[in-house]
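STRUCTURE:
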């Protein structure tokens, strides 16, 4: 990070914005850095599998993920550990056929291509994907996909999308969706636009995609028919915690910048660092970051020791805590930098724009809080029922 990322961070970020285009997954300058990272084995650090990845568990990866999160728009890509490729590699590894692994997983693992994940739709509520409208029907050995998606992050320059679409019509809304691998050159895959997000539409983008009678071979189904929700859960568990660990790194860097700026900037007869309001910003940030880190490490440890399903509550909890913590810390850092903080002369503004998505992506805060509360109520009801049964 010190040698290859921070000194060139702004330049690499600009190159990603300027050069990523259909058919261009990474800008040349970044490819150079990526080759160095790969040569040093700093590659696919998120993937616990020994054969395809670095073989680290979630807890071990947490510390590296935090380091990468200090430069969230550049470093994860430099180490081939950026979303949404990370989640796609995980589900291809877990659910892909041998052919899918050879054709789609291996080039992602090697860093030759990028991919995207296409679930959210403009016309239906992404927070409740049982309402998805996109469909795929089998016709002559091919899936014919129709649907309207948006916020398919990274579609510009990607080789393929994994699309979540309805293939079944059962009474169980959680058993109707499937995941299908769609190469971006499949007939009927139309990248409409990169949606402008807070004034930014460059680079890999957050894209609107129209699937119009889009045809892919039947064997592009990932896992089995109707397994979309199960696979989505597998994807989102580690993905959520990776976002949180990166957010902690982002906040840690913002705090460092806030402290240094406060120490150097003089106003009203002394450095900002001596003003109590600013000290409150710094102290609160320190405490909140450390709380979030411990919660995040606890969730990672539970995932490693009792499994992703059993750690669901802790994953939801850290998802909400980290998303809010990073925004609060960034906001304070920005404030202490004054107008400089809002400029693009420091990475703070870009980190703020990037991090804001965390309160929405992979489930909005409100939905996570809803399930956290439901599980807590359920837990205490179960406990009471057990006590009453014992007494009877
Ligand atoms: C930068 C960014 C990148 C993204 N990348 C991807 C991607 O790569 N692929 C992809 O498929 N999607 C992606 N998304 C989409 C993201 O997953 C969705 O925005 C999210 O699931 C919410 O869906 P929605 O936007 O349709 O909001 P809606 O479902 O319309 O929800 C809007 C709001 O309603 C409120 N709400 C919803 N349910 C409840 C409830 N039960 N109780 C109280 N309030 C509630 C919440 O405040 C929520 O934010 C991305 C989003 C962003 C912002």
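SEQUENCE:
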């Amino acid at each position: 990070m010190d040698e290859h990322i921070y000194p060139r961070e702004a330049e690499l970020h600009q190159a990603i914005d300027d050069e990523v285009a259909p058919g261009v997954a990474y800008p040349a300058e970044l490819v150079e850095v990526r080759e160095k990272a790969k040569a040093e084995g700093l590659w696919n650090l998120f993937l616990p599998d020994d054969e395809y990845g670095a073989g680290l568990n979630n807890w071990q990866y947490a510390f590296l993920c935090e380091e990468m999160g200090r430069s969230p728009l550049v470093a994860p890509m430099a180490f081939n550990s950026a979303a949404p490729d990370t989640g796609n590699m995980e589900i291809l590894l877990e659910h892909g056929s041998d052919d899918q692994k050879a054709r789609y997983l291996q080039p992602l693992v090697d860093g030759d291509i990028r991919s995207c994940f296409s679930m959210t739709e403009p016309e239906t509520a992404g927070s409740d994907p049982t309402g998805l409208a996109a469909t795929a029907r089998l016709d002559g050995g091919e899936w014919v996909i129709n649907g309207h998606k948006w916020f398919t992050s990274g579609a510009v320059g990607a080789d393929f999308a994994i699309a979540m679409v309805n293939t079944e019509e059962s009474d169980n809304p959680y058993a109707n969706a499937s995941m299908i691998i769609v190469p971006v050159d499949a007939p009927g895959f139309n990248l409409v636009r990169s949606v402008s997000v807070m004034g930014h539409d460059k680079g890999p983008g957050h894209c609107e995609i129209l699937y119009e009678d889009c045809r892919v071979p039947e064997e592009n189904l990932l896992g089995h028919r109707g397994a979309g929700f199960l696979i989505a859960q597998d994807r989102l568990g580690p993905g959520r915690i990776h976002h949180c660990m990166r957010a902690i790194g982002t906040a840690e860097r913002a705090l460092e910048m806030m402290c240094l700026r406060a120490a150097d900037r003089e106003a009203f007869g002394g450095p900002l660092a001596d003003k109590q309001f600013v000290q409150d910003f710094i102290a609160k940030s320190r405490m909140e970051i450390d709380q979030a880190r411990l919660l995040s490490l606890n969730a990672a440890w539970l995932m490693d020791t009792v499994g992703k399903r059993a750690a669901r509550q802790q994953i939801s909890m850290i998802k909400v805590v980290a998303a809010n913590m990073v925004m609060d810390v960034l906001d304070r850092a920005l404030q202490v930098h004054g107008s400089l903080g809002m400029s693009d002369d420091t990475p703070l503004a870009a980190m703020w724009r990037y991090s804001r998505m965390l309160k929405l992506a992979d489930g909005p805060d409100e939905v996570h809080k809803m399930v956290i509360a439901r599980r807590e109520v359920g837990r205490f009801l179960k406990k009471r029922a057990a006590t009453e049964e014992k007494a009877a």
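REMARK: Residues 298 and 342 are 34 Å apart (CA to CA).
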